[in-house]
Amino acid sequence: MQQDATSTTPVDQTGTAPAPETAPVDPAATAPTDPSLAAPSTAEPAATGSTDLAVGGDASQAAPGAVDSDAAALQAMGFDHLIQNFDIVGWVVFITLVVMSFSSWFYIVMNFIRNTRINGRMEKVIHTFWETQSAADAVRYMEEQPKSEPFSKIALDCASAAAHHQRHEGSRLVEALNRSEFIDRALRQAVARESAKLENGMTLLATVGASAPFVGLLGTVWGIYHALIRIGASGQASIDVVAGPVGEALIMTAFGLFVAIPAVLAYNFFVRGNRKVIARFDEFAHDLHDFFATGSRVELGAKQVARK
Question: Most buried of the four, 92, 171, 175, 214, by CB within 10 Å?
């Protein structure tokens, strides 16, 4: 019984001894599987963190690039870029506006100088003519005036017509036209000639003021057309694609207005000034007609009563 006990005891001991050996095997066998299954879960956050950092890095790197592209697009809207990228239509529109601008400013300056001189000398010439006691001295004073002075030319034409009619008394000329009609005819021609000189350049100013905005609009339409072409070619409507053509269109519109506005303002200013001068032409011509046809001038007081 003791041997059996002893025999069974070792057997039990040897039988129970492997049990602890198998027990660690199970954790060992499960441990590698569990970490292998848990590894992706712990690795995925790390991977996502790294991707987030990568995306953040790309965004931080892409932001300056976007700013640079926008700055380059805005620079493409400048006048230098416009000149460098002109096609044949753009050059025709641009040169037409430049010619219109220079020609209108030329006539603006010339007409301003001429009208200033006429208005500055007008009252002095008329007053001196009527205050001169002798008709010969008055005619001599008118001959001393510059060629651009219109009132002296009207008076000289009237005096020349009166003298011509007087020299041909008894001829068929006198029989066909009396002294009053002959002088009136000469005065009408002189007033028409001097009035036409005042209109010099007015047609061009009116044409530029009316057509320059439409010429600039042609450049605007052409620039928008190029913008649409670039959008269709690139497949996107970003600022760097359309900045150049749209800038060209805006500059052409502004250029057309820059040419037209001074021409319109100058035209209205000169029309008003010419109307006043032409009215003085007519008044002076009527006085000359009365003086050379009848030998006396209608008095100023009588004119004022007639006007009232």
Answer: 92
Q: Phi, psi at residue 237, to the nearest 5°?
A: -110, 45
pLDDT, tens only, 22-78: 444 444 444 444 444 444 444 444 444 444 433 444 444 444 444 455 555 555 555
pLDDT in tens, 102-123: 999 999 999 999 999 999 989 9
pTM value > 0.90: no
| 3-state DSSP of 14-45 | HHHCHHHHHHHHHHHHHHHHHHHHHHHHHHHH
Tokens at 131, concatenated: 């205050």
Place of tokens 């039988």: 15
